[in-house]
Design a protein that fits this description.
The chain is mainly α. The protein contains 5 helices and no strands. Helix content is about 45%, strand content about 0%.
Length: about 110
């Protein structure tokens, strides 16, 4: 079943419902997903500042897929970006441009005295 997610609370409701339906204890889910019990509780309570990567681990452990429905034009641009290798797994948004090797950062503008 597909549902629309509009808030962290919506994600929390999904995690809690699927977990309980599967008769999985919160601490057992946390352990198998490799996250803390507190983190799992935070997700279930809709905490807006949880780490997305860890939420994805919880969802995956529960067998819940995560999909985004993007406009067709953006989908074509994303496909092109992915084919060029432009999105690295684990890259942080806003971490600055990578150097030519993709491993470091380019120097920023020099400060004036």
């Amino acid at each position: 079943m597909r549902i629309i997610i509009r808030s962290p609370a919506d994600v929390g409701q999904v995690v809690r419902t699927v977990r309980r339906h599967g008769k999985v204890r919160l601490d057992d889910l946390a352990a198998t997903a490799g996250v803390s019990k507190q983190f799992t509780s935070d997700v279930e309570h809709g905490k807006p500042t949880v780490q997305l990567g860890l939420v994805l681990k919880l969802l995956s452990e529960l067998g819940v897929s995560f999909e985004l429905d993007i406009p067709e034009e953006a989908a074509r641009a994303l496909a092109a970006l992915r084919s060029e290798g432009g999105v690295r797994e684990g890259a942080r948004a806003g971490s600055g441009p990578a150097d030519a090797t993709g491993r470091g950062q380019l120097p920023g503008p020099k400060k004036r005295d």
